[in-house]
Amino acid sequence: MTKISISVKVNGVERQAEIEPRLLLVHFLRESLRLTGTHIGCDTSHCGACAVVVDGRAVKSCTMFAAQADGRDILTVEGLERDGKLHPLQEGFFQEHGLQCGYCTPGMLMTGYAFLSSNTSPTADEIRHAISGNLCRCTGYVNIIKAYEYAAAKLREGGA
Amino acid sequence: MIPRSFEYFSPRALDDALALLVRLGPEAKILSGGQSLIPMMKLRLASPPYLVDINRIPDLNYVSEDDGHLRIGALARESDLETSPLIRSQYPLLLDTTVVIADPLVRSQATVCGNLAHGDPANDHPATMLALEAAVVVVSARGEREIPVASFFTGLFSTDLQPDEILKEIRVPAPPPMSGGAYLKLERKVGDYATAGVAVQITVDSAGVCQRAGVGLTNVGFTPLKAAKVEAFLKGRQLDEAAIKQASEIAASESQPFDDVRGSADYKRDVVRVLSARALRRALERARGGA
Q1: Can you give the pLDDT at residue A158?
Q2: Residues from chain A contacting residue B105 (CB–CB below 8 Å)
Q3: A149: burial class by Cβ within 10 Å (0-12, 13-18, 19+)?
Q4: B201 membership: H or E segment, kind and range
Q5: In contact, B41 and B49? CB cutoff 8 Å
Q6: For chain B, what is the total number of helices (H) and then of strands (E)?
Q7: Nearest Cβ partner for A46 among B38, B53, B191
Q8: Is the confidence at residue A1, as pLDDT, over 80?
Q9: Cα–Cα distance for residue pair A58/A111, rounded to 1 Å
């Protein structure tokens, strides 16, 4: 099968690759770029563990071909920390105990990143709706909501 | 899960895409949001040898109103409806619908036009568009044609869209004053397909008499269903509780559900009855509230 070449910006770095068209974005990130922070959970578009931000929108990277990402700007969990400083969301998950096993966390963080970029004063109910495509099996979600609220407050103050 | 191999095309212009569909023949599939197609390809329920990705074609992403019509372009995402001030203020039925489709991550990719083109009776916008008496505009190298949504769905996962055609736009007649709509869906959990869903769009006069009614049903038949008997019953009638109760019973009898994991056919018919009454009440409330 003919390979195609793509050029994608991932966490601010321009990456070129020759790929099979059927390569899913999540496999491109994890296997071609070795960015294994993005997780594969259900592999059926349900759980959101594979969420990454593409051109500002959170998407499920198991349900997008890498070919579709050609020319796009992608942010993964590895790109959240800047200059050795955690992103307010990461800090929030740490401070509020927003994770236990951590499997859903990269997806929760990336969904939160896109969500908080358009709404820095969310209500708890808005947060619940925002994460309704991200499944967590340990926290009961309560602390995840607190972590989002922590990050929102921090972002309102003007960053970390 | 890895899909079978395919050849990928990413045309930069609509004409190029249409020419590709002619050249590649009926086995080519169009990729827009991909939120139904890609899961089907991963499960190998679909293995198209050619994918024509239309996402890079300019000028297909719009939600706008002109000439008395709402126009939704092929690349408008479900999340674009959710954030559109026009939809939020003028089309409550569409807002109701989009927020119960899948989940926010899927909605940021999934397109409204794809929700119709897929031809799945479990999808939510077909019922909505039936209630709104919408039409779809399809284009091919042969030209353009408009198909009323009421005659678009021809069978299970089948539509009137021909292999060389692209669904370019949904066109919804702008509702007159004193109109209101509502969509109610019963789902087992967020992201599930409807156990049953009911879309209602009505226009009333100042005395509360129904001037026009559109009713569509989700996932209770081989195709999305237009509840024509309910519509005929409602028209010209004073929409009091007795009329709403009777209309909801007609809706239940018009539905054609099957037994499956979401419940028995009898249960689903009753869900249609309950949701129809609630949707009618909400639509009426909104119609009286103006807009």
Answers
A1: 81
A2: 48, 51, 58-60, 111, 133-134
A3: middle
A4: strand B196-204
A5: no
A6: 11, 14
A7: B191
A8: no
A9: 5
Would you say how long chain A is, in residues?
160
Task: Measure A58 CA to nearest chain B CA, in Å.
Answer: 6
State the DSSP string of B81-135: HHH-HHHHHH-HHHHHHHTTSS-HHHHTT-BHHHHHHT--TT-SHHHHHHHTT-E
Q: What are the E-state strand segments in A20-117?
A: 51-54, 57-60, 73-75
Nearest chain B Cα to A63, which residue? B38
Q: For residue range B100-114, list pLDDT tens digits in order.
A: 999 999 999 999 999
Whether residue A37 lies within 8 A of chain B, CB to CB, comes out as no
Instruction: Specify the pTM.
Output: 0.96
**A58 near B CB under 8 A:** yes
Distance (Å, rounded) from C-alpha B284 to C-alpha B269?
22
A22 to B105: CB separation less than 8 angstroms, yes or no: no
For residue A100, the SS3 value is: coil
Contacts of B39 in chain A (CB under 8 A): 44-45, 63
Residue of A nearest to B77 (CA): A57
